[in-house]
User: Which sequence fits this backbone?
């Protein structure tokens, strides 16, 4: 029972961190579609340095790892399944600059009509954040 509460507490802490980091992400998605409907998707996400520090602090306070990496290669690989049927992970490259850290990931797809792409980046650590519209 205690483990279930701990996991919930960690998710709550990460959700609060994600909400408080509004506008701390830069995300670009480039979609290239061939005439047969197949193509590639390139997704580039950068998390600002201040937001990364805040996420790591919240993760440590919630009992998680202080070395939280929401933009890991594993996360990029896992995202392929959520992008739709027929989407496969191709490659990814870490990004680190003065603004922040991130990852550029490349995916291939067989049918553009099966893609599920959101303009809002996923919350780190698989946390779902829902907000009411303005």
Assistant:
């Amino acid at each position: 029972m205690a483990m279930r509460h701990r996991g919930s507490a960690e998710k709550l802490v990460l959700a609060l961190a994600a909400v408080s980091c509004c506008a701390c992400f830069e995300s670009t998605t480039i979609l290239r579609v061939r005439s047969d409907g197949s193509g590639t998707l390139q997704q580039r996400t950068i998390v600002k340095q201040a937001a990364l520090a805040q996420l790591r602090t919240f993760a440590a306070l919630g009992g998680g790892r202080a070395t939280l990496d929401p933009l890991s290669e594993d996360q990029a690989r896992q995202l392929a399944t959520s992008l739709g049927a027929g989407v496969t992970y191709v490659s990814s490259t870490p990004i680190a600059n003065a603004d922040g850290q991130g990852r550029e990931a490349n995916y291939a797809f067989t049918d553009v009509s099966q893609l599920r792409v959101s303009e809002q980046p996923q919350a780190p650590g698989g946390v779902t954040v829902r907000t009411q519209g303005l």
Remarks:
- The helical segments are 2-20, 49-61, 73-82.
